[in-house]
Specification:
This protein is an alpha/beta fold and 303 residues long. The chain contains 10 helices and 11 strands. Helix 1 crosses helix 2, helix 3 packs across helix 4 and helix 7 crosses helix 8.
């Protein structure tokens, strides 16, 4: 029988601004449930279902997904595993991209494409309304590119007014784009590339925290290029932990508005990720970890 880990050991809780939604700070990212390169079905669908059920059984109440994972595959697996959903489970999805027949990534930013994506998410998740939808601004590098996003975000705000979306967020966005979005409708979260090695958004995290807005780093463990650091490995050995657990623990220490969505297709790795919240990082170790901050290779797909 699975023993629920509990909110205290999932990093505590964070309330999304202007909502009654309280999330345990370590959640689960569903991207890795799709096939290789986030395309097609998984090699073992039963294992994917088992990971989702185990996550919820252990106390995870925040699942991050998108209908362009697969495409459609990940959301369909979530529905198979968890529908009807627990009352306290929040599913956060994102729109703004599509997949080519060869698995390539393409922008899908027109009002018609965004509207279709929202309906695709609703259908494949088996929902009448989506909890949170992130508008994924387009761009493929480490840092998001500047450019107007008002038309895209206004489309989602209209769908929110129609009752198809409860709350809005933004992903892979600059501070300017975030303010542009907030002038149209409130946002509850920002999801950008960030981890112990890639810290372009340090000041943004603090600014959002002052406003009570969640910051959700995607690729918290490096994504397709896993984090590698001698300092990280040495501290992990000292703590009898894995480097990935230390990297997650560092993110929890970074700021109280940081929410984690590490992904895995393994129950064993899921448990390792969730147990990262119990790691204590003494000040001298935090100082060494803070010094890592080196650049890592650019990612090749949206988070």
């Amino acid at each position: 029988m699975t023993e629920k880990i509990g909110e205290a050991t999932l990093g505590g809780r964070f309330r999304l601004p202007g909502t009654s939604i309280e999330l345990n700070r370590i959640g689960y990212g569903a991207m890795k449930l799709a096939g290789p390169h986030v395309f097609g079905p998984p090699r073992d669908r039963a294992a994917a279902v088992a990971v989702l059920r185990e996550a919820v059984a252990l106390g995870v109440n925040h699942i991050d997904t998108s209908d362009f994972y697969g495409p459609h595959v990940t959301n369909q697996i979530i529905r198979e595993a968890l529908h009807p959903y627990p009352d306290n489970l929040t599913i956060v999805t994102k729109v703004g991209a599509r997949r080519g027949d060869d698995g390539s990534w393409h922008a899908a930013q027109s009002p018609a494409e965004l509207t279709k994506a929202v309906h695709d998410n609703l259908r494949n998740l088996g929902l009448e309304v989506l909890d949170v939808v992130n508008m994924r601004a387009w761009g493929m590098g480490e840092k998001p590119g500047e450019g107007p996003i008002a038309e895209q975000f206004a489309t989602l705000a209209q769908l929110q007014q129609q009752g198809l979306i409860r709350h809005l967020g933004i992903s892979h966005a600059t501070a300017t784009q975030i303010e542009e979005a907030r002038a149209i409708a409130p946002i509850v979260c920002v999801q950008n590339l960030y981890n112990i090695a890639l810290r372009h958004d340090d000041s943004l995290i603090d600014e959002l925290g002052a406003q009570g807005i969640a910051f959700v780093p995607y690729f918290p463990l490096g994504g397709f290029t896993p984090l590698q650091s001698t300092t990280l490995s040495e501290i992990a050995t000292h703590l009898d932990a894995t480097p990935m657990q230390v990297a997650l623990a560092w993110l929890l220490h970074r700021a109280p508005n940081v929410l984690l969505i590490p992904g895995t297709s393994s129950v064993e790795h899921l448990r390792e990720n969730l147990s990262a919240a119990s790691l204590e990082l003494p000040p001298q170790m935090l100082e060494k970890l803070n010094s890592i901050g080196a650049s890592a290779p650019s990612t090749r797909s949206p988070g």
